[in-house]
Amino acid sequence: MFVDVVLPLPLSESFTYRLPEGTRASVGSRVLVPFGSRRLTGIVVALHGGAADGHAIDEDRIKEALSVLDETPSFSEELLELTRWMADYYVCAWGEVVRAILPAGTTSGDPTVGIRTDLHVRFAPSYRHDGAVDDLRADLPGAKQVAVVETLAGFQAEGVRAPRQADLLARADAAHSTIKSLMDRGIVERVEKEVVRTPMSSEAVPEAPPDFSMHPGQVAALKPIADAIDARRFQAFLLHGVTGSGKTEVYIEALKQTLAKGRTGIVLVPEIALTPQTVRRFRSHFGDRIAVFHSRMSPGERFDAWRLLRDGRFDIVIGPRSAILVPLSNVGLIVVDEEQEQSYKQQDPAPRYNARDVAVMRAHMNDAVCILGSATPSLESYYNARGGKYMLLEMPERVPLEGGGTASMPDVRILDLRGKRSPGVLSDYLERAVAKRLERREQVILLQNRRGYAPLLECTSCGFAPECPDCSVTLTLHKSKRQLRCHYCGRTARVPQACPKCKTGTLEMLGTGTQRVEEELEERFPDARIVRMDLDTTSGKDAHDVLLKEFGEGRADILLGTQMVAKGLDFGNVTLVGVVNADTGLLLPDFRAEERTFQLLSQVAGRAGRSSLAGEVVIQTRNPDRPIIRYARDHDYGAFAESQLSDRHELGYPPFGKLAGIEFKGPRARDARDLAGRWTDALRKRAVGVDVLGPEEAFIGRVKKQYRFHTIVKSRRSGKDVTLQEVLRSTVEEMGKPPRGCRVNIDVDPVGLF
Ligand code: ADP
Ligand code: ZN
Predict the structure, then answer these.
(1) Is 243's C-beta closer than 6 angstroms to any atom of ligand 1?
(2) Most buried residue, 286, 416, 512, 599, by most Cβ within 10 Å?
């Protein structure tokens, strides 16, 4: 028997191996095979009888697989088909997608990597009966051996046939050598057992789920969802509901109905929203039937969770992007919460997939339901919903409050920073608003979407600004560590005393980061308890959760941070949200800059007034006349979407056209530029119905010592032109491998272009 195997390498073709005598495999099984001097885990994509089946292979030269890792396949045909679609759509190698679906750390080398075992001890078969101990005692030479045997019998009496060796030794107060001599005498034997490291099983029993009935908005949204679940037919929904409208409860109810049909569900959430708060909420409904994936799991934990999932031990998975690729069978529902989030898009390495779009495809292949939920849907999804590709469900009101009434959307005030002369970053108005909350013992969230102290140091006399020597970006000042730091590669440098260029001027800070806001808050409100949350304070394993807990339990008054503070938090006592500077992302040269700013402002505004306490939002900006700032103030998603869609239409940007970005990288500028030039010429030759823009030096022209150039391919969706993918694929084939040290990265549906 022969198997065709796809390996976790940037190669699309499969390789044929002979199965070892006496082993069996199926399509979707993992096998360990030799490849050059390496051992790799790959996935079987076909089985055949070799030349007898008409395969043009030289059977004598076919190598034998080392072992079959799964007799029952880990991957269903459905999941394999999805990987093929991903390779096709994202113009990457099939092997790259295979690498992404294999559990991390298991793609090469030892087949047991990832499986941890413990040694257990039990009586050898001939001694496995009661009363044996008494007979034994006389034969055993040492007291230690007697102790071990008696302790083992004791374990058995407790119902533990084979305790862990470590436990046995501890209880019997004996050493390994004792076990060894008992083994030599044929009295005990050792067995290896797999250890299951699931962080989810150790947690205490979850609290009872809240008891309430769905409000009319939720009932109306659930009806068509339930119908589709019932009919087991594919249908994608866009659930557009303001923050606090009860979307999560809709997901939970839909999951219940899916499980009742005997099917399973996947819930994708942005990593940042995967807080204990969220997990607890789902677990209160689904207990041990839900598996949690997150990026802070160790490879071992990840592997165990993956294995248990494959073996059907869970009905629901909740996790970030990569959870869309888990080997869960019989999927009936896929939820993508905050579907507009950029974190659903994988940047590096390939496959550069968007989990939201893969979710829709996976649901389609499974006759399953897909719910994309958001308070501020991406323009792509909104457009798809308007055009009827997805069904649009709207929940424009917040959940009614217990004592009657509705938590209203907060009042938003725009503060014009132009002409503000005082040195501080807080306007007088915002400062007074914070003071008022502190007095009333209410809480405040402040957003400054830039970490560090000051984004820029500039020489007052010559204008020099310190840059990273490896990346063409300026260094950010981190005052607490008295350091300059590159936010691209992490390189640090000391803060120079005088300007290193003109040697006379002094360096002055421009712009504001979270650390500087924190310092100002400490000065103005010396008694306030401040929690700062940004990449620098959340690098530890649970740091993020610890900070949120501190704030959530009222042990802090002000939560200050980057976009991390904007997402998914639900704290009833927060009555003021301040945006220190709304312009930080607005002015980037990216066609999505306005969309992102609108989403960020809407999200952070949604953190205020989640209870009966009225909320207020203050947005500081130097661009108060920009329409999108006004749309955010008025909570007017519709107007925002219409204006953006008409701009996009004019320029042929998504959702009206398809984009791919191609990045050319190399350690020498000339090589990278030449490569980009040749590639772009080749693209142009094929460009029927597509525009080829570039090559250009990338916005950040150098990162980690690599020079970067970009070309953009843009196709208007029209009729039967060749697809973007066909153009890219045939160019890849023509151009072959890039020269040594250089790389070509293709990004279909990029989230950022520059
Ligand atoms: P969203 O996901 O849209 O932000 P949630 O589902 O988190 O909204 O709901 C907001 C709050 O309202 C949560 O505390 C939730 O427990 C509560 N809630 C949701 N639905 C109802 C309901 N029908 N009746 C009472 N409370 C509800
Ligand atoms: Zn750098």
Answers:
(1) yes
(2) 599
